[in-house]
Design goal:
2 helices, mainly beta, 338 residues
Length: 338
């Protein structure tokens, strides 16, 4: 069930030299996820490897979503300061990430083809690529909207507006469309794009979510106190993996988790929920994890790539973490995360 853009040959590079700037990325390997232990299995996930990285361009801060483009390690990401980032992730014979190469950065452009300027307009938080591999969708908060771009013209092409499935009046200023993901064609949602808000809630305290496009509509995701949505993507069978984080100050710490939402439960008017299949905190190699992509490698394994946003802070890190989806349920008696 490889997506079209993951089917072998390298994808046409999305950021042309004349429309983007090269970025040098320095990285260090992360060989274990549990800082003071040797565990490799965490809930439904098995840790494969990761990278801690820094870049030569200040625009690299704020990575908020990532999508793997091809089997050769190509990736596309967006930042919350209004930039595209594209490059390659090097991997060893076992598929573990080893570093970055060919990285370029360029501004997102508006409906008139002008570079987006400023945080308020450029706060890109979510990213989805159409099944045909030709169209990229970006979700923004603050000025709430979804824009579509042609993948082969990202550095220079203009955006196209996509109607919001959620009324803009229901979206909070800095807690808007934090996730965009497209369901597999053969799944219950049959290729529909789904969005979930970070912390825009109804009167009952549940999160606004929506099915994008004709015949779509609003549904709700049960919200749990202290947790906020940061991204998500679909498993090959059609269930949604929803990435969430919590921050409770210097003493409460930072945590992340993934909930599995049944694909056949998401429909207009529904309230959905699902079990936690992964959880971690600062005892693990985690940070402000903003991006999650689900994809299949050449060995047929379902992989998860997570990326963090360091917010330009000395106290935070840019991390890329990769896991293998290891089954439907956690092993008998095993804890979910830490």
């Amino acid at each position: 069930m490889l997506a079209p853009w993951l089917s072998g040959a390298a994808f046409a590079w999305p950021l042309a030299d004349g429309a983007s700037d090269p970025v040098t990325i320095r990285s260090e390997p992360i060989t274990r996820f549990e800082k003071n232990g040797e565990a490799s299995r965490f809930g439904a996930l098995t840790f494969l490897g990761g990278l801690q990285f820094t870049g030569s361009d200040s625009r690299l801060h704020g990575i908020s979503a990532i999508r793997i483009l091809d089997a050769d390690g190509g990736f596309l990401a967006v930042t919350d300061n209004g930039s595209w980032v594209a490059g390659r992730i090097g991997r060893d014979a076992n598929g573990r990430p080893t570093g970055f190469s060919d990285v370029r950065i360029a501004p997102l452009r508006d409906l008139l083809g002008r570079p987006i300027r400023g945080k308020a307009l450029g706060d890109a938080e979510s990213l989805a690529i159409a099944p045909d591999g030709r169209t990229v969708h970006v979700g923004f908060e603050q000025r709430h909207r979804i824009w579509a771009y042609d993948l082969d013209d990202l550095g220079e092409g203009r955006a196209r507006d996509v109607p919001l499935p959620i009324p803009a009046r229901e979206l909070r200023a800095n807690k808007g469309l934090e996730m965009l993901a497209i369901a597999p064609e053969g799944s219950p949602l049959q290729g529909v794009m789904v969005t979930v808000a970070e912390r825009s809630i109804d009167r009952a305290g549940n999160l606004f979510a929506g099915l994008v496009g004709a015949g779509g509509g609003v549904f709700k995701v049960k919200r749990y106190e202290k947790w906020e949505v940061s991204d998500g993507d679909f498993l090959p069978g059609g269930d949604l993996l929803l990435l969430e984080r919590r921050f409770e100050g210097l003493f409460g710490g930072l945590g992340i988790r993934i909930r599995r939402i049944p694909g056949d439960a998401m429909r207009a008017g529904a309230l959905v929920d699902g079990p936690v299949v992964f959880e971690a905190d600062l005892a693990d190699e985690s940070d402000n994890m903003e991006g999650l992509d689900v994809w299949q490698d050449e060995a047929g394994r379902t992989r998860l790539t997570l990326v963090s946003d360091d917010n330009g802070s000395f106290f935070q890190r840019n991390l890329l973490l990769e896991f293998v989806w290891s089954g439907e349920d956690r092993p008998e008696g095993a804890a979910v995360g830490q």
